[in-house]
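Q: What would this chain look like folded?
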Amino acid sequence: MADSEFDYEGTLEACARGDKGAFARLYQREAGQLLGLAITLLGRRDQAEDCLHDALVKVWHNADRFDRSLGQGRAWIYSILRYRALNQLRSRGRLVDTDDGFIEQMADDGAQAEDIASEQSDGRELRRCLRQLERPRRHPILLAFYRGLTHEQIASRLSTPLGTIKGRIRAGLRALQECLQA
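A: My prediction, written as structure tokens:
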């Protein structure tokens, strides 16, 4: 079943009503990819499994807080996992241990960036939309997502004014949202 055929929003709404079958379908659908993302962010499978468990418990307990008018269900789920992983990293006193080469290659426009992204996840639509962004918008978004860097840290790393970084991220996320909804 393609991503567009799975009703994430309806499934989350069913979870909010206590439908354990809906949660089981969601788990079966996304657990593997969520675990892969957690491993990428945390660098260790054991910690990634704990993070995945915590994130899925949070999804189940907070499904009633999901509002389809504010965004897509799948993005909401992934943001919970990412938030849990980044909190775990911050509590350990370190940032995401993702190779900077990966971020640089993803930020570039070459075919190698697409190959690396294909190995990391099955987010075809997101990869397609990221490729449509020009590097000055794509790079800060990738640094924020994969490294967990703040706007200030990104500005420092890229030797770019903070206001410019914030504007590029805001415009890039808006463009991604429009692309993903198209």
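The chain has two domains: 1-96, 98-182.
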